Structures are given as structure tokens and as C-alpha cells.
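Study this chain:
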Amino acid sequence: MPSPSPTKTSTPTNSEPKLSDVAKHLVVPSGIKTTGYPAVEAQCRKMGVEHDPWQKGLGRAILAKREGGLYAAGIGGVLISICRQVGKTFTIGTIIFALCILFPRIKVLWTAHHSATSDETFETLSALAKRRRIAPYIRQVRGGNGKQRIVFTNGSRIMFGAREHGFGRGIPGVSIVVFDECQILKAKALSDMIPAANTVKNPLIIYMGTPPKPDDPAEVFKARRKKALDVKKRRAAGEVVDFDTLWVEVGANQGDDVEDRKVLAKANPSFPHRTPWEAILRLRENLTDPADWSREGLGIWDEELDGDGPLSKSWPMLAVDAPPIDGARAFGVAFSADGMKVSLGGCIVEGERAHVELIDARQGPVDAALQPLADWFAQKVDGMPRWKRASAIVLSGRAGALVLERLLIERKVPRRRIVVASSPQYFEACGMLLEQSTAAAREAKLDGQLSLTHLAGEGQAQLDESAKKSIQEKRTRDGAWGWASPAGDETPVEAVSLALYGARTGKKPRDAREGGGVIL
């Protein structure tokens, strides 16, 4: 009797990418001679499961073996960095189901950091176990906290639990360990569980998760990634490097347009034929912080932000030679935390369009810049003090904001015109610039009217460099972020962010005169 064909929903298309196409970083173990995946693939077909081409490549790499039959990644383990909503539980789960069926009486530990994640994984794989073509292989699906397991008719079993409750300690003879949520995996938790697999001849350890947040205890994940990328670099230089680990990293590149479906397809190989657009939208709705969306929705590691920042690709598309003729003006002044940098930015809003410019940027002790800054705002242009043309003067940075506020008040600037930005206001200003830059870049691609522009020219070089290099730095536990530039100067992009915020939220002053066409 012929084996039943896979279900229609599992049939891949010829256009679907291979693992080498979707992986941003793929570092394979050395000494590979064969792989155990063909037997697993055949068993999956009996179960009514057909993997996509990239999943097949992942399976071949995970189950790759050296001469003698031991797993090539049996020492360092298999590490997978990938975004959410990609189907990694299904992919790894079906491979493990097949291994449990092929090899009687093996033990599998599937752990997550949080109980909620462990429970969700158990529910997903329990549903898989109840499928018509898989159920005959299953003896029991057992629930209950701390006792969740799937038992196969041949004695193999998968046990589920949360590391936060100490799951996995003291269980001998474990053949496979899955560390889900490995972005939250401390070295101690790892040392507690690895002995469970050291008593078998050919263990398989799989780590998988999303790029970690700055405050995640991810020393294991980060260290393994650093080592893998170093091996990749050395191999690219022609060096022969012995490596006992598999590193697979799938994700978008920093600066990609997150609204572009091609970018989503690069970050998520299951989109759109497995993961629908609606699922992506639901995920993004829940990940309100852009940095969290970059990590969990697009698979981007924070370390990549040490290079070009999220404005790097959109910013050049927004440069213009001519600013708006008139509109509501605002200024922003940003002081660096160390008191050694200060920048002054301006913004004009005309209708729906906002235009920003860097007016000045200085390095050195900011104390020396405070009096000249205050005098500049009080200076008359066409018979009117410059501050009177502004709906708001927004200041940020403890190194100078309060002192400058006092100096402005001494020069008769009304308090209502001065905004010493609170932390929430500062965070909103940073997010406003990023959001509106991204939207305007989409408009530029469609040859539409740009809703945000900045001045082109050599005089804006400091702003252009700041926009290119500034990254999103998490400032609070709830995910609020501000601009940072570890190797440069974030104050120019902060200054225009503050100016944009002031122009968008402030009221146009009654005593301002129209015309002029320049922010100064």
C-alpha cells in the first residue's frame, strides 16, 4: 500500500528559498560526512508532514554527522537565532517526533524559561500528536504542571517544563535537549541541565530563540554567536577552522524598511505562504517598541546597531535643496550626558510637511556654549527676536537644559515657549523622527510628496553622519528608547527630533511673521 501523500497545505512551491538563501549567518560544523535527515524526512512524510526547502536544509544541518556517526554539532550544540511567527516549534517538533519514532526509548527534554512558553509549546505539540497520521505512534499525552509529556508507543518520550522552576535537573539518560527562549539562558541553568545529556553516547543539544534584549541574561547565546561569527570571518579569510557547533541566524538587516514585505520575507522564510500578513500585523501590534520589533519581529541583533542605525537608509532619500516657504517653526537643543557636546536643530511645519535642519553642533564643555546660545535666540532678525518666530524651544539634557532655560527667561523669552523635555517627551520625540522618516521614505519610493525632509548640503554633514550612526538605546524597563551613537555624536539627530516634536505639538505664535523660507 503506498504511503499517503502530504497534505495540500504542506506542499512547497518551487520558489521557496533554501536554508543558504534565508540564513544571514550560517556557520556549519567541520568534518561533516553524512546526515541523519533522509530517514527523518521519510518518517515525516509518513506523518503527513512535508518540510519546506529551508526547513529541509536546517534538518540536514542539525542532523549532520562526522565519520563514526556522531553528530557534528554534538559538542557545541545547534544554535538557531530566528524571529517569532516563523514556525520554529513546528519545524523542530516534527524533526524530534520523527527521531522519537525512529529510535525507541529516547528521552527528550524541551525547556523554556517561562512556564507560559513551555505550556504553549506543549499545547502546540500535543495538537500535533493528535493528527490522524501521527496519533498511531502516540501512547499518551499527559498534562499537569511539572508532568507534561508526550509518550510514544515505542517508549520514547518528550518531557516539557520551565527552567524558572528548575525543570530538567537530575534526569539521566537524556538524548535530546531543546533550550527554547535561549535568549534568556544563564550559564548556571545550562550547567544544571547539560549533565542530563552527558550520560548518552550521541546527544543532541538545540538552542533556539530571538535576539536578546539588553537586560536579558543571554551570556550563553551571545558568547556562542560571537564565537560562530569569528569562525565565519576566519573561514572567509581562507583559514581552516575546526568547529563543533552549528550556528543558524535568520533575520533582516538593520535599516531595512520594516513595512516592505520583501524585508519581512527575508526575516521570516515562512511569510507569506505559511505565516499570513494578518499574523505579522498582530505580532507588530503587540510589539510597540521599535527595538522589540527589530529583535522579535525581524531577527535583528542589537550588536548590529553598532554600525549604521535605523535612519541610515531612509535619511538620504529625504534630502532637499529648498525648505518650505513658511510655517510653524520650532527649535531643539540637545546636550550630551557627559556635557561635552551640544547641538541646535530647527524645524518648519507647513501643512502636512515637516522640514528639519541642523543649525549648529559644538564639541567641548557645554558651559562655554550656553551664553552664546541664549544670545542667539534673543538676537533680532528683521527687527524681531529670533525666539518670537518659534512655537517652541525644546531643550533636553541635564548637562545644560536647566541653565539654558534660566538664561532664556532672563532674555525675556516666555516660559510657555520653553519646553524642558521630560523623559516621556524625549522618547516621543525620538520615536516621532524615526516613524516619520520611515513613512517619508515610503513616499519617496512612490514618488509622492514627502511629509518629512531635511536640508541637503555640506553644512548638514554632522546631521547626516549622526542620522546614519545613531542607534536606538533602551532607557527604561518598559522599552522606551533614545538616540545613542557609541562611536559618534547623537546630539544632532536628537536636536532635530526635539525640534520636530516642538513644531508638531506646539502652537504657532501669533507674533511670528510669515516668509523667509529658512529656519534661522
Notes: The longest strand covers residues 353-363.
